[in-house]
Design a protein that fits this description.
heterotrimer, A mainly alpha, B alpha/beta, C alpha+beta, B: alpha/beta, D-Maltodextrin-Binding Protein, domain 2, 2 domains, five-stranded mixed beta sheet, 14 helices, globular, C: alpha+beta, MetI-like fold, four-stranded antiparallel beta sheet, two-stranded antiparallel sheet, 12 helices, MetI-like_sf (chain A)
């Protein structure tokens, strides 16, 4: 009551007004933007300069290698040897152009290469159908992608003589074809299996839960490369003596189990995000557990985890490169084997091959990650009321 | 939940059903399926290498073709399965391939603990070194302190350790999983020396960015008897493989070639020739094949000398001398027991 | 509200056993057990029969056999002549652990830097960090490793024309050569002094914290700490040097016939693997850090500003401690990923566990089942242990919450 502001000895309370500062000279326009974003303080200016230095150090040589000094056409290594052409040589795109069929199809017989082409088209259709959120009949799309398309692809690629399609042994498959086949089998097999495992892990039955936890944690605890080795070496041992598994199928089994474990964790995240009320509401409507799951919980959970599924597909897609280590002729392996071709022995061929591979993976993975981000934003805006 | 159980039960049923099938003799199963699954080198010039169209060529590849000729009267009923040094034995043990024909060294431990059988030796080889010319090295004894590139999981890796230890030389080993990586590492300068079987050295040298800058040192540091391998415990198939090689040797010794086989069949009175070509005796039938089995091999693939010269000898870029692989009658070690 | 429940509904409903949930649950579980058991039994039976038919040796006795091959980079003594396959296993394991530890440290440093840079108000720094993350995340690690190993290191000069930095550090295709520190007999005093200095610095920091809590006065923790940690070993060195015994000498690499000899050599395989793992994992860690920092509500840093904290201390004292709670779980899985990814060493010839044990040993012995089982068990153990340790840490961090 008695203590007024005058009597309190608060030395840190300012008593007089701050003198007015002059109005900022620039509040808009490029200069103001520069000052606010790049040179707001001496430290910031130093950072800007360092960053600029990095850009200057990296970008021009990269551009020179990839575009300016690149060789775009040629028949053999002479086109890409600086001592022959007489100027510094960057990327040897002529090498990629010469080998592109090998990179795409491997040794798939030339007269049968329309089959992989049809496969690519079918795949584009299925992926487009599933990823386009407003597409008509997406349930049909899912059925197509997870059932009809795999069967059709198998018939098409490996061939059924009865249908007039000559058999093409998998040892001839190669390149991007194999990379895509492996990733597709991974996703097609791992999604249903992953959902089952996720449901099992949340089950009230202790043995089922234990089994699912052990299964998931085992595959998540070991590196993929050991899984591939195991599939390659031990899978034939576990099967009866006269059953032999195709060399391409073995890593496929390994990859399917491995990615199913990761997928299970993604789906579990979605299941956990569904409020209890949904299950209770469904229960009060008298739905059986099976219907509750199929009609109420899973549709919502799967919708939430679309970005997660796409992200784990991205890592699966990158991980397929490991099959090259167990002797499958995937895209990386075709590059590795093309670069030792003496006909193309030139200094920049190796870099060119890797740059091409990097571009291929980057375009796919970056595209998918942008898509995941887009879905995430859209879902988030749908949640706002 | 029901689905999990159903899926598991299905998988189980399948594995039990498959388990009921009986394992059978290799030759019978080859005849049944109509082709030989031949484990070959993924790419070693002269021994087993596919071209861009997937057509295979090489000494070891032709050996599988000879088997196919003897069994099917068609040299083309072979499926080549490229196997790296790491994968090869498990592929054979698991039954994925019927025969391993990819320059595999016969050693005692492989024979006894890996469950393999080596019916024949189709190339006598030894391990050597390749170095860059500009190093000025002329003998393996001068490799003190060198880095050596080798392929892992081979006898080469073991011989290398033995050789340097025995000669009290220091070295640094750099081991890679595949032959491609190993040679490329050497070629790009990671190692001073590259070691493998001498035949492999000549073959790989062709792939170097500048083949003439590399030389092969004179020392041969090991015995490398290379030959086809089969699973242990199937004596009949082992015999077929063994006698296919010997038939090719005997044909060369008797002067039967791909070109003159038909004529010899008609005109020759030499009992050795007649027994080889199947006009006398029924040696083929006892092997589980037809009487003209050796004739088919010679007619469709050729005798040992022809196959050798075509793939690794003077008819090839490798230009390897017959040396130890000459017939015994010409100072070599290739000795075919008589067909009689 | 108070509807009485009819008596017949309160009594347990009579259902056929076929629809009794408890019986069903038990039946499902028994079925699952049976199925798994039978599948395992079939697999084991088949494996045993196949192995018997193939006449392959079995059992773990091979671990005691002499290896007979050499490995170039070992942390523990290994010689072809008298070391066993068991020692080869340990060589691989220690190499894996070394790469993992070094990779984790470097990736954490780089990842935190890039993650913070991505949120920088500086436009160009943020963009640069963004490009780094998006590029490296979207290219397979295997490709990056091959790039570092085959393309970058192979373009270095041959051993005879090494780049020399001064007269004792050399860089060439065979790796990086630096002088090897050679400790004299009584040089133990230096690390001892270092340990003493570290302990004293920590004690001082604790005292300073108490002092600040009590009186608000801040003691110069950093300068005293650095003085103790660096000064004590230097003093020990000085005393030793004065007493005449050179405590530390360096073995300088010199040119031999083929390679440089002596000194310490960082092999190109090792460098490529560490580089690749670090650069790749750092991109993921950066994302983890970014989302962790963004999860701390803006009000927190605004309040810190209002209290007059500068941007540095705001980040260090307010934002990061809170962000750590969000960051730690995904960071753990990135560490595990790095450890597991180190198995890609097999592609570039670095002798890690997979390369030495699952590669060479498996091939020389042919005992696939044993070797694969041991290798997987090792990784599984590492994974579970890391997860356990991180969970403990996580719980401690989480307890701070409110």
């Amino acid at each position: 009551m008695t203590a007024g502001p005058q009597t309190l000895p608060l030395s840190f309370v300012r008593r007089d007004a701050v003198p007015p500062a002059p109005a900022p000279a620039l509040v808009s326009g490029p200069l103001a933007w520069l000052r606010a974003n790049l040179f707001s303080s001496p430290g910031n200016a130093a950072l800007t300069l360092i960053a600029l230095a990095i850009v200057v150090l990296v970008a021009p040589p990269l551009l020179r290698f990839l575009v300016v000094d690149a060789v775009w056409s040629g028949q053999n290594r002479d086109a890409c040897r600086p001592e022959v052409v007489g100027h510094p040589v960057g990327a040897c795109w002529a090498f990629v152009a010469d080998k592109i069929n090998y990179f795409v199809y491997g040794s798939y017989p030339i007269e049968e290469r329309w089959r992989p082409n049809v496969f690519f088209a079918l795949m584009a259709l299925g992926v487009g159908w599933l990823l386009w959120l407003d597409a008509p009949r997406r349930d049909l799309g899912a059925a197509y992608f997870f059932v009809a398309f795999p069967v059709a692809s198998f018939v098409l690629l490996s061939g059924v003589p009865a249908l007039g399609l000559a058999k093409v042994p998998t040892s001839l498959w190669g390149g991007m074809l194999v990379t895509l086949v492996v990733s597709l089998v991974g996703i097609v097999a791992s999604l249903p299996l992953g959902i089952l495992l996720a449901l099992g892990r949340r089950s009230r039955l202790p043995i089922v839960r234990l089994f699912c936890v052990i299964f998931i944690e085992f595959w998540r605890g070991v590196p993929l490369i050991t899984v591939l080795f195991m599939a390659n070496v031990m899978l034939p041992l576990f099967l009866p003596g006269d059953v032999s598994v195709d060399r391409l199928v073995r890593p496929l089994v390994g990859i399917a189990l491995f990615s199913a474990a990761y997928m299970a964790e993604v789906v579990r995240g979605g299941l956990q995000a569904i409020p209890r009320g949904q299950a209770e509401g469904a229960m009060s409507l008298g739905l059986s557990p099976w219907h509750r799951m199929r009609l109420v919980i899973l549709p919502q959970a799967l919708r939430i985890v679309i970005p997660g599924i796409v992200n784990s597909f991205i890592s699966l897609f990158k991980d397929t490169s490991l099959v090259s280590i167990v002797g499958i002729f995937d895209f990386i392996r075709t590059i590795e084997s093309a670069r030792v071709d003496p006909a193309w022995a030139a200094p920049t061929v190796v870099m060119t091959g890797y740059a091409f591979a990097a571009l291929f993976y980057f375009v796919f993975c970056f595209g998918m990650s942008r898509y995941a981000l887009f879905v995430e934003r859209r879902l988030a805006s749908g949640q706002k009321r | 939940m029901r689905k999990t159980v159903a899926a598991l039960a299905l998988g189980l049923g399948a594995s039990l059903l498959a388990g009921a099938a009986q394992a059978q003799a290799t030759l019978t199963s080859i005849k049944q399926k109509g082709y030989i699954a031949c484990g070959s080198n993924p790419g070693l010039a002269g021994f087993g290498v596919p071209d861009a169209q997937g057509r295979w060529a090489g000494l070891d590849v032709d050996f599988c073709r000879a088997l196919s000729a003897a069994i099917f009267n068609d040299a083309g009923k072979v499926r080549f399965i490229p196997l790296s040094a790491k994968d090869r034995f498990t592929a054979l043990q698991s039954g994925e391939v019927d025969i391993l024909s990819r320059n595999t060294t016969w050693s005692m431990s492989r024979d006894t603990t890996l469950g393999l059988d080596f019916p024949a030796i189709n190339f006598y080889d030894g391990q050597g070194f390749m170095v860059k010319k500009k190093l000025g090295v002329t003998s393996a004894k001068q490799l003190e302190g060198a880095s050596v590139c080798t392929q892992q999981g081979t006898t080469t890796e073991l011989n290398l350790a033995d050789y340097f230890r025995a000669n009290k030389l220091k070295y640094e080993v750099v081991a890679f999983a595949s032959a491609d990586e190993t040679f490329k590492a050497y070629d790009s300068g990671r190692c001073d020396a590259f070691t493998t079987d001498a035949s492999g050295l000549y073959a790989e040298r062709l792939r170097a960015s500048a083949p003439d800058d590399n030389i092969v040192l004179p020392e041969i540091i090991s015995k490398e008897p290379l030959g086809p391998a089969v699973r242990q415990g199937d004596a009949q198939w082992s015999d077929v493989v063994r006698w296919t090689h010997y038939a090719m040797l005997n044909a060369e010794e008797a002067g039967i070639t791909q070109g003159n086989a038909d004529q010899m069949l008609k005109t020759s009175d030499n009992p050795d020739v007649k027994r080889i070509l199947g006009t006398e005796g029924k040696y083929g039938a006892d092997l589980g094949l037809t009487g003209d089995w050796a004739y088919r091999i010679i007619k469709l693939v050729g005798n040992y000398g022809e196959v050798f010269e075509k793939n690794v000898g003077q008819g090839s870029p490798l230009k390897i001398q017959r040396g130890l692989n000459a017939l015994w009658s010409k100072g070599g070690l290739q000795y075919g027991p008589p067909i009689r | 509200m108070s509807n009485p429940i009819p008596a017949e509904a309160r009594a347990a409903p009579r259902v056929s056993p076929l629809y009794d949930p408890r019986i069903r649950a038990a039946a499902y579980q028994i079925l699952l057990l049976l199925a798994v058991g039978l599948a395992a039994w079939a697999a084991v039976g088949n494996a045993a029969e196949n192995l018997r038919n193939a006449r392959v040796a079995s059992g773990f006795g091979f671990l005691g056999n002499t290896a007979g091959f050499d490995v170039n980079q070992t942390l523990i003594p290994f010689a072809a002549a008298n070391s066993t396959y068991g020692t080869a296993f340990l060589v691989g394991l220690t190499n894996t652990l070394m790469v993992a530890v070094i990779g984790i440290v470097l990736a954490t440093l780089l990842g935190f830097t890039v993650g913070v840079a991505r949120l920088s108000p500086n436009w160009i720094v943020a963009r640069l960090a963004g490009v780094y993350v998006e590029t490296l995340r979207n290219i397979p690690l295997l490709l990056q490793l091959l790039f570092w190993y085959v393309a970058v290191l192979a373009s270095l000069p041959a051993a005879r024309d090494s780049y020399a930095f001064g007269s004792s550090v050399f860089l060439n295709q065979r790796g990086l050569y630096v002088p090897r520190p050679m400790l004299a007999a009584d040089a133990w005093a230096i690390p001892a002094a270092f340990g003493l200095g570290l302990a004293a610095a920590l004690a001082f920091a604790a005292r300073a914290r108490r002092e600040q809590a009590r009186s608000g006065r801040r003691l110069p923790v950093w300068s005293v700490g650095i003085g103790l940690v660096a000064g004590l070993p230097l003093a020990a060195w000085g005393v030793l040097a004065l007493s005449g015994a050179a405590p530390l000498s360096f073995e300088v690499p010199v040119k031999g016939t083929f390679n440089l000899r002596g000194g310490m050599q960082l092999y190109p395989e090792f460098v490529a693997l560490v580089l690749g793992l670090t650069v790749y994992t750092a991109a993921f860690i950066a994302e983890v850090v970014r989302s962790g920092i963004q999860a701390v509500s803006r009000g927190q840093s605004e309040a810190a500003r209002a209290l007059g904290l500068k941007p540095g201390p705001t980040l260090r004292l307010v934002v990061i401690p809170q962000a750590m709670r969000v960051i730690v779980p995904p960071l753990t899985s990135q560490y595990l990923n790095l450890t597991k990814n180190s198995s890609l060493a097999v592609a570039i010839g670095y002798p890690d566990l997979v390369q030495v044990f699952m590669g060479t040993v498996l091939n020389q012995t042919g005992q696939a089942v044993e070797v694969v089982a041991i290798t997987m068990a090792v990784y599984l153990t590492i994974s579970l242990l890391t997860a356990f340790v991180m969970n403990v840490y996580n719980r401690r961090v989480a307890l701070v919450e409110r």
